[in-house]
Every structure is written in structure tokens, then in C-alpha cells.
Write a structure and sequence with these properties.
about 300 residues, mainly alpha, 14 helices
Length: about 300
């Protein structure tokens, strides 16, 4: 099954790479158009959020391992962590953002690569973080001013924070970071080499391409929805039915729909509230990134606890 998943993900990465190139050419050479933040939000709330919408199933699995019968505790804890993240973002936005970017780098690097790596060593964890940091560094390197504009919309008003970012940009630290991320991909590719690991470089070039041609929000949406989320969803489908991926897709869709709808409902409610104070596009950006942060932390914590207790 592991080889089957590797082959599926290699094909997925190849298709994603081709589409990134084709879409970039169409968008900037043939038809000059932009993608609105609302479209990004709808894609993230459907395709993006759905890849974590089986967390209740994973929570049930964790509680069975731990011998906890009251499943209400899971929902309460998950929602509480999400609310704490939102509250912390309002109180100390710059610190919360930095922590979120660090955690997200590790999460993206690990989940996009771990199906290729057998050994779960400390070195591999570092390599996962460096590889995933490309998702954060690429938009800052190619579209620094637009990225800073998004940070400012996310309630980050700490002047020291922006002075620090300016120093990073001026001293080419972003470039050095991308070089480190590149080296991590090379190391992960060459360790226990097999052809299916070419997935790593297809993903690497795809991320650079979309961040070069598109705004940070659009580039992140394309990556998050059509690479990261689809890949994670494929692994969930294979777990639901190891012999028939299409049947796994049907089961996944049925199981994912309730929590996806619930998360989207809360997001649209938050959008309506924010729209009373901020303009529509600004409200959408807050919902996307602060909302994703509030869901990412409990999602990652759940993954960690399951992995630790299964061992």
C-alpha cells in the first residue's frame, strides 16, 4: 500500500506541476486576470478545510487508545484550543503569527513528505521543517511588500516586527533560507533513493512557480488546496479503504461533509461580524489566516498525540 500511495502522490505532484505551469502561462501571457480573495476563501473552506474534517474520527481513535469514554471532552478541547489561538492572536498577534509560521512550516514539510520517509529521526524532523519553510519564505522573497501588507491586515502593528522583517529582506536572509530549504529537499531526495522521491522536486518547483507568478494569497490557496490538502485527503481515503481508493473517496466525502459545513458556517458568521468593522477583502484575509491558525494547532496536536500513543 505504501508503494501505491507513493505512486499516486508522484502522479499527483506531476499533474500539479504541469497545471501550475499551464495556469501561470494562461494567467500572465494569454489572459491577464486576478483571482479574488472570495474565491480563495471558498476554495479553502471546501477543499482545504475538508482534509482536516476527519479529526473527529482521529479523536475517537485516540480516545480508544487512551481509554477515555466521554467523547464530549474531545470536542470541548478542540474548540477550546481554537478559541485560545484566536484570543492570543488578538492579544499578542506578532508572537502568535511567528509561532504559527514555525509550526506551519514543520507541518507542511512533514505531511507533504513523510509518506516517502520511513525513519522518523530527529534529523528528518529538522529537514521537514526546512523543506516546509519554503511555503513561508517564497511569498516573502518574491512578493515582500504584498506579504507585509497581509501581515498588517492580520492585526500585526508591532513596528519592531516590521523593522526585523526589513533587516531580513535587506540582508538576503530570505534567499539564504530558500537555499537551506533547497538543500533539505536534496538531502531528503538522496537518502535511500528511489524514483518516486522525485515528488519532492516537483513540489519544490511548483511552489516557486506559483509564488513567482501569483500574489501570496493566491499562491498559498493553490498550494494549500490542490497540493497539501489533496495529498492528505488521498492518504485518508486509502486508510478508509485500502483496496479501493474510489470507494475510500466516497466514504471520505460522506464523513468529511458535516464538519466541513460546520467550519464553513462559523467562518461565514465571523466574516459577517468582521465586515461591520473592516472592508470585505480585509475581513476575508483575517478569516483565512487567523481561522486556519485556530484550526491548525489542534489538528497538529491531535496528529502528534496519535503518532506518539500508537508507538
Amino acid at each position: 500500500m505504501n508503494n501505491k500511495i507513493k505512486k499516486i502522490n508522484l502522479n499527483h505532484s506531476f499533474i500539479f506541476f504541469l497545471l501550475c505551469n499551464i495556469f501561470s502561462i494562461i494567467a500572465f501571457k494569454i489572459i491577464n486576470f486576478t483571482i479574488s480573495p472570495l474565491i480563495c476563501l471558498l476554495l479553502i473552506l471546501s477543499i482545504g478545510v475538508s482534509h482536516g474534517s476527519l479529526d473527529n474520527e482521529k479523536g475517537r481513535k485516540l480516545f480508544q487508545i487512551l481509554g477515555i469514554n466521554n467523547f464530549f471532552i474531545f470536542y470541548f478541547s478542540y474548540i477550546l484550543i481554537s478559541l485560545i489561538v484566536i484570543i492570543l492572536w488578538v492579544i499578542i498577534p506578532s508572537i502568535t503569527l511567528v509561532i504559527f509560521l514555525i509550526v506551519a512550516s514543520y507541518h507542511f514539510g512533514k505531511e507533504d513528505t513523510q509518506f516517502l520517509i520511513i525513519k522518523n529521526s530527529f534529523l528528518n524532523q529538522i529537514l521537514f521543517f526546512l523543506k516546509g519553510s519554503l511555503i513561508i519564505l517564497a511569498p516573502m522573497y518574491f512578493n515582500f511588500d504584498k506579504t507585509i501588507y497581509i501581515f498588517k491586515l492580520l492585526l500585526i502593528d508591532n513596528e519592531t516586527f516590521y523593522i526585523f522583517l526589513d533587516l531580513i529582506e535587506t540582508n538576503k536572509i530570505l534567499l539564504y533560507g530558500i537555499i537551506l530549504s533547497t538543500l533539505s529537499s536534496i538531502i531528503l531526495f538522496t537518502k535511500n533513493f528511489e524514483l518516486k522521491k522525485f515528488t519532492i522536486f516537483l513540489d519544490y518547483f511548483s511552489i516557486l512557480i506559483i509564488n513567482y507568478y501569483f500574489s501570496p494569497l493566491v499562491a498559498f490557496t493553490i498550494y494549500f488546496c490542490f497540493l497539501h490538502s489533496v495529498r492528505h485527503s488521498i492518504s485518508l481515503m486509502s486508510e478508509l479503504d485500502k483496496n479501493d481508493l474510489m470507494n475510500g473517496l466516497k466514504i471520505f466525502a460522506k464523513k468529511a461533509l458535516p464538519l466541513t459545513i460546520l467550519a464553513a458556517t462559523f467562518c461565514f458568521a465571523g466574516l459577517l461580524l468582521l465586515n461591520n468593522t473592516y472592508n470585505f477583502d480585509s475581513s476575508i484575509l483575517k478569516i483565512i489566516f487567523i481561522g486556519l491558525a485556530s484550526l491548525t494547532f489542534p489538528h497538529i496536536l491531535l496528529e502528534y498525540l496519535i503518532e506518539k500513543n500508537e508507538k
